[in-house]
Amino acid sequence: MQFLLANWYLVLVALVSGALLLWPTLRQATAGGGPNAVATAEAVRLINREKAVLIDVSEPQAYAAGHAMGARNVPIGSLEGAKGLPANKALPLIVMGGAGVNVNRAAGMLRKAGYTDVRTVAGGLAAWREASLPVEKSA
Fold first, then answer.
1. What is the CATH number of the domain that holds 55?
2. What's the number of domains the chain is made of?
């Protein structure tokens, strides 16, 4: 204990470095990380080859400000019983959202609703833009 008190700065450096190592993981978890997350390139492949449906769970204002081209807007608060979801529950769904949207929660809600292949975009809309993929704005 005396060592810790005498070398408090070493303990502080260890704690700060540990937090900095965990930060990207925690940030990715809220932006679409997790076990079913796919990179943007994989998301595009799923859309083009497997007829995956891109669902943006952002609020309408955030969706109108910018969203992935072709994405359907189904706000996370209205996922249950939403009309914008495909009737075929076997189709792959790719869930995306902007900053502050918990897409993992939305993906869990969709799985609970019976959709069998639900994935999230790792990094969300920011990763989509970074990959220079098309983004559109609603009028």
1. 3.40.250.10
2. 1
